[in-house]
Amino acid sequence: MNVLVIGRGGREHAICSSLANSASVTNVFCAPGNAGIAAVAKRVNIEETDQESIIQFAKENDIKLTIVGPEQPLSEGITDRFLAENLKIFGPTKEAALIEGSKSFAKDLMKKYDVPTGAYETFQDADLAKEYIKKQGAPIVIKADGLAAGKGVVVAETLEEAEKAVENMLIEGQFGSSSRQIVIEEFLDGEEFSLMALVHNQDIIPLEIAQDHKRAFDGDKGPNTGGMGAYSPVPHLPASIAEEALSTILEPVAEAMIKEAKPFTGVLYAGLILTANGPKVIEFNARFGDPETQVVLPRLETDLAELLLSLLNGEKIAPKWNPEAKVGVVAAAEGYPGEYKKGISLDSFHGKNDRVFHSGTEEDNGRLYSAGGRVLLVLGSGDSVKSAQENAYSFLDEKVTDGLFYRKDIAYKAVKKG
């Protein structure tokens, strides 16, 4: 069968790579893709948000399954359009995508259905927000209510930082319409981890746990980014944690979405934290996480296309996993997540390589260059997280070029704790 992936980043590269290894898939198309994706899928020159052209392409090319990578097309209702045309798509409707598109919706849902998360309040007025912050104290978390490409979160260590974040979002309009409303949350202390699940209404297939690194610099310092690296498994977390999160968070949320007349189909990403009182929700996403997908899908031994189609048809297949550890390290353009330069030469990374997932790359006359902030991810494998980490860095240290930077401590918690 023919399968279409929508998106252009490292997450989509990993999805396309997994589908390319599927015995049931004849052709993998990606709209619009990137230079690296071109090695495993046929690129389609259509923007992710061009719904009419994507639907036309799906019809003309007998696409049997479409997988949506990024959040923007989902929030704009691409799934609704596909379903109206009787086309199979794996992704939530516009209403269900609110679980990511609106932080206040997600928090209100959790509060209503007793899903464990931090205390919070929602604000549109900067003065009222500042008053609340003074009462609560620091550290405290300020979030833009809408989509902000993973950058709309400030973990403020001081009251001054928190008030500045409020001003940036509500007064300066740092994230445009996405920060006209903000959510101020209790700071939760504990170990963070990511749990993605394939969901169709009440049917849930949890994937393997991963841990990502959001801060730009070593030691979890610097601004939040879209993610500077990830690894899976997370051996220092209790083996029972996935089952507990499934029963106390994912299953109740899937049921709640049905009760709210917003049934969820797609990837439900739970950004979680293991507190002294068990796992609690930091955030939800309505799609595969990036960079977690780049370390989780390479461990999946079950055919991804069959897994998704079976779920859409009401059948749950128990996925099989490779026990090998995966560590992914992101190389980003200097200046990211702020202003950064494009057009950095990447010739040392040119050519098909299953150890490299491209995020922001393009090719011109046989030369590879950067076209985004997060440029690529190097994947290391090993029989332990430590050996996978060493494998990733030995490769990256040889290949990295001027103009790029990367964290030197991805997976440090797992390695430190043995």
UniProtKB/TrEMBL annotation:
Keywords: ATP-binding, Ligase, Manganese, Metal-binding, Nucleotide-binding, Purine biosynthesis. The keyword RNA-binding does not apply. Its cofactor is Mn(2+); Mg(2+). Its EC number is 6.3.4.13. GO terms for biological process: 'de novo' IMP biosynthetic process; purine nucleobase biosynthetic process. Pfam families: GARS_A, GARS_C, GARS_N. Pathway: Purine metabolism; IMP biosynthesis via de novo pathway; N(1)-(5-phospho-D-ribosyl)glycinamide from 5-phospho-alpha-D-ribose 1-diphosphate: step 2/2. HAMAP family: GARS. This is Phosphoribosylamine--glycine ligase. It comes from Jeotgalibacillus proteolyticus. The lineage of its organism: Bacteria, Bacillati, Bacillota, Bacilli, Bacillales.
